[in-house]
Amino acid sequence: xxxxxxxxxxxxxxxxxxxxxxxxxxxxxxxxxxxxxxxxxxxxxxxxxxxxxxxxxxxxxxxxxxxxxxxxxxxxxxxxxxxxxxxxxxxxxxxxxxxxxxxxxxxxxxxxxxxxxxxxxxxxxxxxxxxxxxxxxxxxxxxxxxxxxxxxxxxxxxxxxxxxxxxxxxxxxxxxxxxxxxxxxxxxxxxxxxxxxxxxxxxxxxxxxxxxxxxxxxxxxxxxxxxxxxxxxxxxxxxxxxxxxxxxxxxxxxxxxxxxxxxxxxxxxxxxxxxxxxxxxxxxxxxxxxxxxxxxxxxxxxxxxxxxxxxxxxxxxxxxxxxxxxxxxxxxxxxxxxxxxxxxxxxxxxxxxxxxxxxxxxxxxxxxxxxxxxxxxxxxxxxxxxxxxxxxxxxxxxxxxxxxxxxxxxxxxxxxxxxxxxxxxxxxxxxxxxxxxx
Length: 438
Ligand SMILES: [Zn+2]
Known about the structure:
18 strands, alpha/beta, Immunoglobulin-like
């Protein structure tokens, strides 16, 4: 054979050997996606949910869990393990074809250490298909651990749930945008989620609801293996109804109870839902039904994870998200668009950002409530100052000029009612300094 011909043949053989498998696997991945998207157009919501529930299975969940816990392990914020976990999560999101973003944050995480630590949240976005459904759904967990633990349940379970939900939901298209977010800095004081929520709030991104999962992988008895507990903010009743109906309708038959109502006024929270609650967002945290005896100990390892339970808690969150993402909201929604939280404000103008959620407001301020109607028209919007009703507005724009004399801390609350009596609430705390006479 001629040397050149041989060279050409060699070239083709090598090319085929090297690139053949890549091309083939890429093509398969692409076809797989195309099939899903094609199905997606003809699938009813019911069929979509059936598929989603099936696809979230033990194999999928185990793969993520084993890598995170057995390969990476300890993930205390600021360590190599934490960094590796962020990279792993980001790689997984990218493989799913989603837009991925690192959000860096820095904070003094330790009182005895004066240095700032820089770490990152990892966020994946699945863009919604219908711009009229402009309020997004967020599902988050924290990927960092406490000291001396690989954190299989706290919060490997939540992180794996976010990954598994993202993996399956990204195979379909939905009207609303979904965000899958993993935070660091949770164990030292909710640093990652705090930075994330501040950015979200300052960009005025509309959010339908945030789901938090922190400890959803442990059930020690058959009975607790069929229970889920929720902590919720006040306007999420219609969403927990969706979850309740889903578990019956699709034969999961879990007993879902509300564990506690989130108090937005508390000075501290127990997990990453708290910054969302403080900034006025609606939030649902999903918790396992047992307390975890291995909490923050070396025994919080993979052998104490109940895999089938973790699959089921993940299914409940993912399926609820899927239903919500295509559902028109029937209840009213309200949020205080002015004044803004976390600011110093003078004469209704923002002077600067502060690290507190409570704003310092000097001189009068216009309370402006943005109201979205559900099925029924808005009947009225009530403006409260503390527990005192100051004003009721029945016409757009819904607003009230707050010019009470004050030197001190107050709560502003706004309640919107529709013609059927459904209501929605938003509130914020302000330090109000106004000594001008009316
Ligand atoms: Zn945790």
